[in-house]
Amino acid sequence: MKKILLMLPLLFWLGCEDEKEDTTPPTVFILSPTANSTVSGTINIQVSASDDGALEKVELYSTNGLINSSSEDAVVHSFDWDTDVAGDNGQYILYAIAYDDAGNNATSASVTINVLNYRTITFTSQCYEEMEFSFWEEEGVIPALGSVSVDVPKNNGTTNFAGIIYTCGEYPIWDYDLVVEDQDASWSFWTDNNFFYLKLANQLTVDITHTTVNQDLGTYYEETCYGVVPNNSVKYGLGYFYASSNSNVYAYLDNHPIYSHVYWPSLSLPMTNNQLLELTASGATLNFGNEEIPLTTIFDNENGERSMGILQGYSEGTLEVPKLTGGLELSDD
Description:
Blueprint: H1 2-18, E1 27-32, E2 38-39, E3 42-50, E4 55-62, E5 65-70, E6 76-82, H2 83-86, E7 90-100, E8 105-107, E9 111-115, E10 118-125, E11 131-135, E12 138-142, E13 147-153, E14 157-164, E15 173-180, E16 185-189, E17 195-202, E18 208-213, E19 223-225, E20 236-242, E21 249-253, E22 261-264, E23 275-281, E24 283-285, E25 292-293, E26 296-297, E27 328-330
Parallel strand pairs: 2-9, 10-16, 17-23
Antiparallel strand pairs: 1-3, 3-6, 4-5, 4-7, 7-8, 7-9, 10-13, 11-12, 11-14, 14-15, 16-27, 17-20, 18-19, 18-21, 21-22, 22-26, 23-24, 24-25
């Protein structure tokens, strides 16, 4: 009996020596995304974590705080993060903390990424010719009566829109500072009632060599388009011209046996925004009201030709055209 009692302390001491305390922290690091990468929208972040015992959980953090935690029994933990909801564009720091069941924890090296989310700005043109434009870092063309969408960093603030339409007549231009906020937006463009767009069809027996609009109304208003209009009844868009209460159109003919030109002495424009005038050389029809205007012929022109007027061409820094008033609005949609 004494022999057994003497062995008990030895057995107890040997058992305590086997239960060593776990003081080793887990190993944790971010696999993706990589440092200095640029991301947008919802991204997947992968974290590797391991321990010599058992992991309790892995937490993922950004500059703004906790993103999510994972208690999965896995070497790689996967997290989805909506960068757009997270906040403004800019740099964010990611890091992870891993915990084991012994109460140890470790923090990964941080990873800095660049968040860049966009908003879609849609431009719709109500104009009858294509418009060349620049907006933010985008340069392109808005089709006639068409739309173009541009992706711009959200909350970009004041962003300049510049547009120009090259026509045989005037060169309408737009120059506006728009504010890009944290939502998509739509803008519409048009010409105001100081301008009208002219389409001309020729049903005569000869071609039209050139067309003068607002003849004898002064160099500010008068424009000559030297584009040939064939006698094929097709409507050709000549361009934008200044609108006035006494605007007129003269079409000069190519070796007609009787007349040098035909003209419409009074167009009776409605003076509304985005007005379109369609004329036919054998009569004329206004698309607003279908009013018939009799064709008028006159005697031969003594000098035969006229100058281009105030706009003979365009070079950067020398274009002298007044900016259109109005002509821009934020759409409801």
